[in-house]
Amino acid sequence: MTDTPIINDTTERIELTYRTTGAPIGAPEYTVQLDYLVIACEPNALRDRCDYSPLEKTIFNKFENFTFHTTLLKVKVNKENPAHYGVIFAPSILETMSGKVYGYRNETAKALSAGTENPIDTAEPHLKADSIDPAVAAANELAYNYVTVYQIVRTKDAPSDPSKFKQWIDELMRQGLSDDVNWCYGTDFEILDHVTTPYFDHFTDADLKIYMPWKYLGIQGQRNTIFVHASTCFESVLDIYQYIQMLLTDDANKIGLPTDKTAAIGILGAGPSGLMFGSVLRDMKYTNVTIYEKSGRIGGKTHTIKKLQMLKDGSELNVICELGTCYLSPAYDHFVKDMSRFRQGNDRIGFGGAGGMFRGIMTKDQLGPDPNPHGVIPYGAYIIRKAAMELGAPDAPPQKIISTMERDLTRYIALREDLLGHHTPMPMVPPRKLFNEKSSQTFLDFLSEQRPDGGNLTSLIGLLQYGYSVQGYGTLKNIPAYYGLIWVSTRVAQAIIDAFKDPKINVVTAWSEGWGNLWEQMATPRPDTGLTPLNVQFSVDTVRIVRPS
User: Fold this and answer.
1) What pLDDT does 3 receive?
2) C-alpha–C-alpha distance, residues 398 and 124, integer Å
3) Going by DSSP bridges, is the β-strand pair 376-378/509-511 parallel, antiparallel, or unpaired?
4) Torsions phi, psi of 246, nearest 5?
5) DSSP symbols for 257-271
6) Each residue of 493-549: pLDDT tens digit?
7) In the beta sheet, which residues pair with residue 278?
8) 40-61 pLDDT, tens per residue?
């Protein structure tokens, strides 16, 4: 720490007091004065440290979230029982929110398939016993693979000791996890890293009906403070980015940004929201901006780990392992363009391999009597079979089912725009029609509702189980419809329609060098950008915040 204690000589500025993270009781405290405060960390992390107003406390006390745990494994390839899929997702396990492994992604296979399409295949290649995704087959030829494993629990049920997640992994894998999520790598594995994080701050349906997200929006700029954490709208980089753009649209002084470009601005948190807002202030020519980060790293809930893996021909494979932020959708197109300065050598890539075999879905308790003895089928086949079951037409030709899904996606878009409008990332005023029509509506309720325009939207359940639930946002049956509608935007729904017609369209993409590389380039830009590095101060543990009344 280079700061020295100073005496606050004004009541008009914000006073931020902190000590070095991990410092013992009685260690020196440091105080800085700010003209403006940006809270980019989880607001509840400052519950007993910031002088929140009664309204702020009311808003933040309403949040619910999940506890999300990801683990990076180095697994020995099982030559006797080779993997067929690069991604496995078990909807029935996720629905329990019990901490059991509900899915995993083979990062080695993902890297080997980089640059390929990820089509929604309708040919049901699983009917061939020897069908294996080409990238997965190549990964099977190696001695070991890198695999990211996913677990989630409701926060109220989260273990007090995060090591319990490791215990669950060990116990489940050694006691027949293959029956649950098609684990084919055996028990010879090494845990390389893991991350436990509170995830997806959201309001209940009851609190949405009293317009809590808009009360949150209403406090922006008060007491020279704004909040840009994911809790403002939705837990995704895209929604954070769009929310920041929304706050700054037309007139930045709507949120009370200082007119003096030398004003002292403090940002709490060097995750995506803090870095993106710091970058925006840099573009606006503010020269006295400091990002205060509690840890010793940037990136927040982004955890990109890069591994170099030797291939059979002696070359090295760049394996990007994501334990946090991982994918992009077509809705990110504008974001990708806007981030062009910060992604040199970090290309947006498709992955998934040819033939639609990269993603496998566990069918247990999802398709009625399961005709597949292995309990796992390709994603494309799954969403078609699930739709056929929901439609009561199990013997209908796949193309007929797809036509129905395309029709229902078009209806979904119309309904969504009627309820939420076109404004991103959220309506500027509460969608009263959505909240007032039903006393309580989950996303599953929304899809199941019978409508005068042609029945329900249950043909989309299988599609959205993966598109929504696999991300760690809860399940269709336990999350308010509002959040499902926010995430599955018009742009995403239209991209899925387009992908049914053209397999070269990638609905799911990734960064060739990972999300972490994007944040690193944003914090320390290349010289040719003409931008100065963001001023990030690490190991800052906030003690108290006093703001003007």
Assistant:
1) 40
2) 9
3) unpaired
4) -65, -45
5) --SSTT--EEEE--S
6) 999 999 888 877 888 999 999 999 999 999 999 999 999 999 999 999 999 999 998
7) none
8) 999 999 999 999 999 999 999 9
Pick from 103, 113, 111, 110: nearest CA to 70: 103
DSSP 98: B
SS3 99: coil
User: What is the C-alpha to C-alpha distance for residues 485 and 426, in angstroms, rounded to an integer?
Assistant: 10
pLDDT band at 9 (very low <50, low <70, confident <90, very high): very low
CA distance linking residue 371 with residue 479, whole number of Å: 30
Residue 492: which pLDDT band, with cuts at 50, 70 and 90? very high
Helix (H, G, I), strand (E, B) or coil at 474: coil
| Site of tokens 């800052």 | 540
- Token reading at 531: 């931008």
Is residue 439 over pLDDT 70? Answer: no
For residues 299 and 271, the answer to whether their CB atoms sit within 8 Å is yes
Q: Report the top-level CATH class of 14-63+203-294+519-546.
A: alpha beta
**R_g of the chain computed on alpha carbons:** 24
Amino acid, res. 208: L
3-state secondary structure of 247: helix
Mean pLDDT of 327-354: 92
